[in-house]
User: Fold this.
Amino acid sequence: MARYGRVLLKLSGEVLAGGAPFGIDAERVKSLAREVADVAAAGVQIGIVVGGGNIFRGVAAAAQKMDRVTADHMGMLATVINSLALSDALEQIGLPTRVMSAIEMHQVAEPYIRRRAIRHMEKGRLVIFAAGTSNPYFSTDTAATLRALEIKAEVIAKATRVDGVFDKDPLKYSDAVQYQEVTYLEVLSKALGVMDATAVAMCRDNKLPIIVFNLTTTGNIMRMSMGESVGTVIH
Assistant:
């Protein structure tokens, strides 16, 4: 029995790149799609927000000299590309999806309408939210938090490359200590770098828990959805 009825899954764009520095790894996307489909089959309604770093990284050097607003809009469009790739992989294994974009592009994706998104989920469709919030200066973490609150998700599941939240970067420091549970205030005051401060503050103000877990461990999305102790809980 799933612990959560509705989950917002936040994926980084780098996840779709597999081991490559940028781009989309088709096999990685397929394996991720299979895991997500298994969770949906268990009765969990899923919304996904995916970043665009795997695509935007390829033009990051050029973007450094760009106007910030222009660069942010490019990043939003990168999330649309990733959303379409993930949607295609999920549809190919029989899971109906809808890509809803905060930037209107009717030939490519549905416009984001909150009530329609909720209705899609109630009908068993997986909804992928693309193009962030459509506003510059906001990260995809903030977009994920906003969408989670709008669709009344019970938790934000932030998938990363590490096992949870640590007191310092575990990829750089071998003596980094993992937290099993941590408060929103600790994340902010200690600058733990899990999500950006705006997203964490929004979760705190609305009492929305965050679970940070390792996506590279097969089956972790299911374990998290079933309420098993996976990663770190921020509440």
